[in-house]
């Protein structure tokens, strides 16, 4: 193959798709095609399953949904003129495939089928898709381009290896890669390694946005054959990323590095060649210099994920307003800040529901925080309803001392009040429980767990404090009272109550929960890490017993490697311990 001297100009559309909104997604893709054409791009990429949104789950079992998705793709293809586009969609053929359509000259010209189907963590692709057989190449204005979809490049080898050995100067990867803490930098390091190992440029086009529990962080990028990042899109935002790759540089590197030659002869790579395409910009020497967006620091990144996940859950499900209980504690403070940043203060109502055990400090902090953030604050004292319940229950409870039952009554009254506001005004209730509390069941079923979206359900307690600090640092005059952070945490359901009365210190609890839940360590593995046997046994027991509670929790943003819900699937009826 001769050296290609002309550069190839790319446009990567980091798209926020909505699952099931075929017309809306198609309109966004067509807008992206027009923007790419105006920018002079020759090859334009859109994310995995951009037509349907990701993951469509059991919508993929409906024949009419698959038919409508193909109709939407054909509509999009009509806009693909003067360039080549690669768009993700579900292909219905002899089976169903997670596919990348090649669009040019106003129609679908070819289709590549994803080879590697993930079936771990939050992924269930083997439930829905058949795997493709091999890699595929197209030629765009003389440049050989390999096609891959998301998981295809996450492990070394096929299909990227075969495509590179077969002559790909550039491998494109359209992706829907769910976020967890630090995922973006880890993923980019993997892409850099694939480019260097295969001596080809890699263009990674990512989905962005929230979908139920999942957040997609974007951070699309283009990497050259040496692993140099030529362009990077910002995290957690839609963006059209432009870049130029030099295929001649990759070819020259392969000429100098002879290690690939035996592999080419030994493997005789098998790939599908799907066509040769010429754009209206063929032969132009013009380059587009790609921007390289700065990466967020780890805690700011998590905060941004919570904001995007909350914003998209509210918007994509048609809610106009949210409501939450504001206690003046650290957890509800974080949820209120996230809600205001996601939606605007005018779309958030906070409710303080003091009882006989609420301190003046927390009540004052709730009022100050709401005023500083500019949100409406309702005050609904619960002393009257609590006394009514106590009166009704006087006879059946006769002869028994007050206990956690009376504490839970307070939480359930508060939950009823929030749900009443939700029913009356159509507001979405945001719950305020964190992962540490949910892990060990330190919440009240149908009380503080009642709601429609659990913003911080996957955020451990110590991280809650750090995220509040992130928000406090953002503005010159922090809206968050200092006492919210310095006050010992308390549910304030009985006199002088402190979380530490019922739970181990949070530095111990969070570390054991991480080991037991996220790393699947057993008792002996946790003891080997130096934790006290008493703490380990107690926390394992509490985590296991609370499974029935967690099954009844609302969805919330996943930010750790293993979140409760679709990511961790444990039986409720379960006698195994350890």
Distance between the termini: 60 Å
Q: Please state the average pLDDT score.
A: 93
Low-confidence stretches: none
Query: Percent range for helical residues?
Result: 25-40%
- Structural class per helix/strand content? alpha/beta
Largest beta-sheet details: 7 strands, mixed
Find the count of extended strands (DSSP E, 2+ residues): 20
Number of helices: 20
- Supply Rg: 27 Å
Q: Determine the strand fraction and express it as a percent band.
A: 15-25%
Q: Which term fits the overall shape?
A: elongated
Strand order, main sheet: write it out. 13-12-9-8-7-6-15
Short key terms for the protein model shown above:
20 strands, alpha/beta, single chain, 19% strand, 578 residues, 6-stranded mixed beta sheet
Short description:
With 578 residues, the protein is of the alpha/beta class.
């Amino acid at each position: 193959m001769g050296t290609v001297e002309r550069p190839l100009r790319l446009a990567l559309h980091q798209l926020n798709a909505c699952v099931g909104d075929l017309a809306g997604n198609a309109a966004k893709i067509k807008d992206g095609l027009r923007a790419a054409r105006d920018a002079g791009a020759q090859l334009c990429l859109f994310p995995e399953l951009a037509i349907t949104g990701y993951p469509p789950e059991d919508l993929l079992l409906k024949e009419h949904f698959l038919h409508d998705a193909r109709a939407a793709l054909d509509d999009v293809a009509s806009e693909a003129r003067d360039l080549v586009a690669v768009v993700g969609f579900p292909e219905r053929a002899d089976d169903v495939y997670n596919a990348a359509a090649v669009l040019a000259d106003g129609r679908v010209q070819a289709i590549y089928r994803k080879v590697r189907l993930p079936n771990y963590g939050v992924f269930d692709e083997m439930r829905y898709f058949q795997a493709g057989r091999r890699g595929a190449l197209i030629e765009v204005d003389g440049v050989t381009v390999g096609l891959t979809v998301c998981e295809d490049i996450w492990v070394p080898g096929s299909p990227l290896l075969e495509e590179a050995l077969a002559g790909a100067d550039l491998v494109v990867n359209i992706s829907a890669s769910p976020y967890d803490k630090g995922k973006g930098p880890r993923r980019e390091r993997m892409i850099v390694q694939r480019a260097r190992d295969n001596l080809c440029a890699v263009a990674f086009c990512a989905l962005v946005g929230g979908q139920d529990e999942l957040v997609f962080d974007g951070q699309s990028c283009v990497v050259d054959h040496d692993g140099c990042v030529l362009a990077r899109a910002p995290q957690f935002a839609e963006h059209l990323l432009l870049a130029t790759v030099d295929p001649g540089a990759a070819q020259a590197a392969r000429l100098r590095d002879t290690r690939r030659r035996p592999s080419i002869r030994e493997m005789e790579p098998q790939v599908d060649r799907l066509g040769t395409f010429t754009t209206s910009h063929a032969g132009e020497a013009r380059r587009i210099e790609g921007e390289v967006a700065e990466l967020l620091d780890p805690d700011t990144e998590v905060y941004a994920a919570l904001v995007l996940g909350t914003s998209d859950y509210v918007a994509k499900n048609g809610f106009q307003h949210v409501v939450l209980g504001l206690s003046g504690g650290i957890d509800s403070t974080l949820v209120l800040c996230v809600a205001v940043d996601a939606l605007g203060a005018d779309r958030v109502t906070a409710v303080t529901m003091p009882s006989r055990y609420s301190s003046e400090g927390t009540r004052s902090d709730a009022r100050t925080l709401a005023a500083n953030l500019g949100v409406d604050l309702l005050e609904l004292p619960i002393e009257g309803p609590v006394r009514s319940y106590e009166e009704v229950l006087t006879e059946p409870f006769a002869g028994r001392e007050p206990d956690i039952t009376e504490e839970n009554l307070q939480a359930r009254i508060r939950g009823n009040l929030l749900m009443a506001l939700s029913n009356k005004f159509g507001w979405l209730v945001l719950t305020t429980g964190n992962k540490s509390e949910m892990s060990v069941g330190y919440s009240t079923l149908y009380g503080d767990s009642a709601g429609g979206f659990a913003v911080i359900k996957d955020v451990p307690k110590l991280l809650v404090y750090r995220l509040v600090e992130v928000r406090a640092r953002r503005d010159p005059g922090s809206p968050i009272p200092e006492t919210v952070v310095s006050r010992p945490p308390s549910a304030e359901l009985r006199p002088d109550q402190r979380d530490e009365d019922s739970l181990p210190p949070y530095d111990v609890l969070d570390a054991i929960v991480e080991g037991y839940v996220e790393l699947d360590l057993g008792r002996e593995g946790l003891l080997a890490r130096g934790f006290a046997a008493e703490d380990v046994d107690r926390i394992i027991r509490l985590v296991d017993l609370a499974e029935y509670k967690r099954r009844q929790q609302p969805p919330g943003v996943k930010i750790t490697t293993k979140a409760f819900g679709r990511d961790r699937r444990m039986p409720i009826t379960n006698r195994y311990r350890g």
